[in-house]
Amino acid sequence: MKNEEDFIQMQDVLESTTDILLTQFVLSFILNLLLKGVMSQLWSIFNTLQIILALPLLAVLMPSNILIVEKTVNGIINFKPIDPNVLYNSIITPVFGSSETDEANIEGDESGE
Fold this sequence. Notes:
The chain is mainly alpha-helical. Helices cover 81% and strands 0% of the residues. It starts with a helix and ends with a helix.
């Protein structure tokens, strides 16, 4: 009697697991088909940016619009979209306070030393 109940319970778990896996596979397949075009465009953008950023290594003459794109992208890649002094003054100083050496460094930067 107990074996039959266990067997029935195992069959129920097996059926529900099979349904879940089938649903997951179908959903994954549909999403793959829908996003295939978007991902190929994204990869082509990455490939183009790699080529543009590698051009200075080849000593190729480049038009000014490419140089502007390269400068902008390099700033983003090197994590320099924000001036470090502004970042320091707006985040680090309010949280940790400033020391005398920090104030001396800031005054030295402002005077041009």
